[in-house]
Input
Amino acid sequence: MNVVSAKGLAKYYGALCAVGGIDFEISKGECFGFLGPNGAGKTTVMGVIYCFMPPTSGEVKIFGIDVTVDPSGIKSRIGVMPQDDSLDPDLNVLENLIVYARYFDIHKKDSEPTARELLRFVDIEDKVDAPIKDLSGGMKRRLLLARALINTPELLILDEPTVGLDPYSRHSVWEKMEALKSKGATLILTTHYMEEAEKICDRVAIMNAGRIVTIDSPAELMSRYRGSLEDVYLKLTGRPFAA
Output
């Protein structure tokens, strides 16, 4: 079963082509990664998938629903972990989750037990009453992951989930992503860490200049091109992979 399917997805900003007519499918329970240099169109594709922006042309369906027909219904079933820190500095850790849950019409009596369980899942339950300013970068990323899970999403979108983290914090987030995969979650991520793509993704789409150059598993790509995933990336995009 495909959770996401795109046919001829194109997105223009005026005369600028951000995404130039791409096709891809993402299966239930799969971890699918988008790789590509800055400006390749990765963030635009993600934005269309989570209904932040409509495509200019083409067809994109999430859970079999066209993104232009019922974006609100799709959003209610998706969790998004953004690249930027969008936590509310005026709320403590637990409050950030409880208030965010209201966007999904989840009341406090229901969201608080879920929020506390999620804080245990991401290993920051001891920070439940802490102000956001007292959290480390790694803790903030884990809190963003917990927030993305507050509505028990069927599809989780992670935009650079470990950007800027030290190796220990990065591996901690990877462990949580692996745990979600083991429970059958469908994950989509962009990343600037090649090791992350190799470790987490079942398949990756390498993008360049608004188009998908290839889609396959990291292992198959490395076998086909007889090199590391970083070597494959260089051969297909003409640009070295930069974290």
User: Anything to note?
Assistant: DSSP finds nine helices and ten strands in the chain. The chain has a mean pLDDT of 93. The two ends are 33 Å apart (CA to CA).
